[in-house]
Amino acid sequence: MPKQFSRSRRVADLVQKELAGLIQRQITDPRLGMITIASADISPDLKNAKVYVTSLGGEANVEELVETLNDMAGHFRYELAQVLSLRVVPKLKFVFDSSIERGSRLSALIDSLNKDSVEDEGSNEVLD
Length: 128
What we know:
The protein is an alpha+beta fold. It folds into 2 domains: 7-97, K homology (KH) domain (GMP Synthetase, Chain A, domain 3), CATH 3.30.300; 98-128. The chain is built from 4 helices and 3 strands. It has helices at 7-26, 62-71, 73-83, 99-127, and strands at residues 34-42, 48-56, 91-96. Strand 1 (34-42) and strand 2 form a beta hairpin. Helix 1 (7-26) crosses helix 3 (73-83). The longest helix has 29 residues, at 99-127. The mean pLDDT is 84.
C-alpha cells in the first residue's frame, strides 16, 4: 500500500513551488501572459517531471507557450539544482493544462442555464 504522502509527491510540490518563482522572475515576455504552474507529476524514480502550465492574458498560442518553456527546461533544471537538495534533479517536460479553460466554459454554460430558467419562471408568473 503506497504512503499517503510519498516522496515523489513531496518532491513534485517542491518543484512546483520553486518553478513558479523562477518563471515569474525570468520570463518577461508579455505575449506569454501570466504563466501559472497548475501541477507537477514526478516519476517514482524522481528522474522525470511533467509540469502542467496555464496562461492568462497572453497573446501567444498554446503551442508557442509550451515550446518556449520546453526550450528553457534545461535552464530551469539547472536553477532547480541550485535551490533543491536532491541528488538527481528531474528532467522537465512542460504540458499545457486545459482543465481550467474547460471548467470556466462549463461554469459559463451552467450560469447561462440558470439565468434562462430564472427568466422563464418570471414569465410564467406574469401569465398566471
